[in-house]
Amino acid sequence: MALALRFAEAMAVAPSQVEARARASGQTAGARSTLQGKAPALGAAAVLMLMFVGATLPTPLYVIYGDELHFSQLTLTLIYSVYFAAAMATAFFLGRISDEIGRRVAIFAAVAISMAATLVFIFSHSIPMLFLGRLLSGLGIPLAAGAGTAWVAELCENHCTSASLSAGATLAGLGLGPLIAGLLAQYMPEPLVLPFAVLLLLGLAAAIITWLLPETIEHPIRQWSRLTMHPRVGVPRSILGAFAAPAVTAFSTFSLLGFYSALAPSLLQGSLHVESHAIGGAAVFELYAIATLVLVSTQGLAARTAMLSGLALLLPSLGLIVAALELHSLPILLTGAGVGGAAVALGYRGSLQLVNEIAPDNRRAELVSTYLMFCYAGVSLPVIGIGLLVVEETPDIANEAFAAVIAAFALLAIFVDLRRARR
């Protein structure tokens, strides 16, 4: 079973609002910001990409950890659950903190926590250390997601660019994680050290880029006593109806990612007898690579059309992945991953762009974090559920059951959107 976390995307503002933010940012950043034009938005997207590499980098390494530490499938499921719980807690309690302390400070905190998690992995020689590493990752990366996606939105010149740029950076980072780890683990020494050493360097690069970017919060809070640390995750009542279909789309779309991440390694090793860590990482990378390409090539597609197209493609993708398990076919698996990548790109970008259009400017990070919680739940619950069901049932029954559940949520999202459109 592998980890794959895909997070959320930017909440765009109108051009006039972006220009006002940019003027204010130029006053607060001063000489520190040397970036001009679209470069700040590209820089913020690069930070997202570098941070999200750490979310999936352990994916092909858990096979090695399992062999060395002799833990079961249930233990790996619990490790994944710790990440999920930490991510949900971060979104729940700290979802809006970058609206108060500023984007840059929040990103710095996220980088520090993520680098601490990386150091834990480097010196990890026990199961409790793995739990601690994933716990810290679950605290740091979602914090960067909430602040970074809002930052990209505020630095972009229009919401379409914001949606595509942020989603592309997120998917690219998530795809690069297992690819880098798989290649280093297969062809370089110290497979459980070198990938994380590279991740440390990427964290330093993210911190440097963050330092160069202009702050978009005009009056960030610098006194801890003034921070509102109580949970602020939710959706304003006035936009609750419009938020429903994108939220269900997020859950079902990211469920496909979690489902594929749980299924691909077991199919490669158990049914196809593929032991290469590089191939395992590349199989996960394929889905994200195709998703990124589809996202770039369909920027002109209307948000609602993209969302519904992604939901429709989820159904054949799930069918192909389950068929690959039953037929023990690598080509069918890769085909299903390709269709799934297109579904993820369209559903992800479309649903988030719709949220972009309804997001209140003063609650952007809060709404981003609410959306993130649907993403975390979607990407995590299938992996956790399959791991628990396998203990009681056969893998085939577990996989088919969760494929059916994901398909049902996709159909539910389509129904909710069509019903709202009729109104």
Give structural notes.
The chain has 423 residues and is mainly alpha-helical. 78% of the residues lie in helices and 0% in strands. α6 (103-122) packs antiparallel against α9 and α7 runs antiparallel to α8 (159-187). The model is unreliable at 1-35 (pLDDT under 50).
Order of helices and strands: HHHHHHHHHHHHHHH
Number of helices: 15
How far from one another are the termini? 43 Å
Q: Which CATH top level class fits?
A: Mainly Alpha
What is the CATH superfamily? MFS general substrate transporter like domains
Give the domain tally: 1
Mean pLDDT: 80
Unreliable runs: 1-35
How would a crystallographer describe the biggest sheet? none
What shape does the CA trace take?
Answer: globular
Roughly what fraction of the amino acids lie in strands?
Answer: under 5%
What is the strand and helix layout of this fold?
Blueprint: H1 15-29, H2 39-56, H3 62-69, H4 73-94, H5 97-101, H6 103-122, H7 127-155, H8 159-187, H9 194-212, H10 240-271, H11 277-297, H12 303-327, H13 330-358, H14 364-392, H15 395-422
